[in-house]
Amino acid sequence: MKETLKSIELLGPCLEGSLKKNTMAKYVKKDGSVSKYPTASILQYRTAPKKRSSRRIPAAHIEEVQRLLENGKAYRKLAQRYEALSAQLALSFLKKT
Fold first, then answer.
1. Is 32 left (phi over 0), alpha (psi -120 to 50) or beta?
2. d(Cα 66, Cα 74) in Å, to the nearest integer?
3. How high is the pLDDT of residue 90?
4. What is the pTM of this model?
5. Which among 43, 40, 39 is positioned nearest to 72, based on CA atoms?
């Protein structure tokens, strides 16, 4: 359990969510033709249970956000591992008494 907690501490800042890249927006010109133009990537994240928010991310910050998202996935795996270990520990104390 201590190794799991240490790994969580070493992760640093993290985000849980998803990054939608290569988004295109459409608009109709006066002559009726449709044009597309690229827009900034969109980060979608959870703000509360069953509530999501989104934020546009400039191209210069995409790599940093991707690193934070990877840390978020690693955090989630480590947190699940910690929950399983603590449940096993609690059950082992119940068996002894």
1. left
2. 12
3. 84
4. 0.74
5. 43
Task: State the average pLDDT for the chain.
Answer: 88
SS3 category, 14? coil
Residue 38, token pair as written in the block:
């690229």
Concatenated DSSP letters of 41-69: EEEEEEEETTEEEEEEE-GGGHHHHHHHH
Number of domain units in the chain:
1
Domain of residue 12, residue span: 2-96
Q: Do the Cβ atoms of 53 and 44 come closer than 8 Å?
A: yes
Handedness of CA 82, 85, 91, 94 (dihedral sign): negative
